[in-house]
Fold this protein.
Amino acid sequence: MHAALLTRKTVRLAARAAFAATAAVALALGMAGSASAATSTRTVTDGGATFTLRVTAPGTAAAAGQNVTVTGSGFNPAKGVYVGLCAVTGAPGAAKPTPCLGGSDQAGTTGASHWVNNTFGGTLPNTSAFGAGGTFNVTIHVKADLGNGQICGETVECAIVTRADHFNSSNRKYDVHVPVTFN
């Protein structure tokens, strides 16, 4: 009878261990398949007002390409920004993020960039207006190959960025970088 008790106890412990191991593997596989989010924050003063810019985007993406959701808040709704994947050099604001995947996608065919502004937002492909508090939530298509030999993680460092639109393209105040790696 004592041997039967030991066997049941051993079986229960083995079952619990197997369940824990299976759960750990499932959790690891689930995490490996999904993109983890990264957030960058930058505070700027523009025209006497202070804006705390926050951009959240995936920190990893598939090298062959995938759609990612990028959210932002705290932007100045009077200043349009582009959201896209670009090669970056230095800290946000140090140098214009360029080249960017898809370039100027005015036809809206690549989905590689999105223009957020309150003048034309929502009237052209890949555009939207800012929400309350300078917020946005957009989807862009990213991939490691920017073209012309520019490969993220190999020949250039890349980030999902915001940068001033073409009405104020030399303004580096609204540059925010979320570094991204490709697997």
About this structure: The chain has a mean pLDDT of 82. The chain is about 15% helix and 35% strand. Helices lie at 2-33.
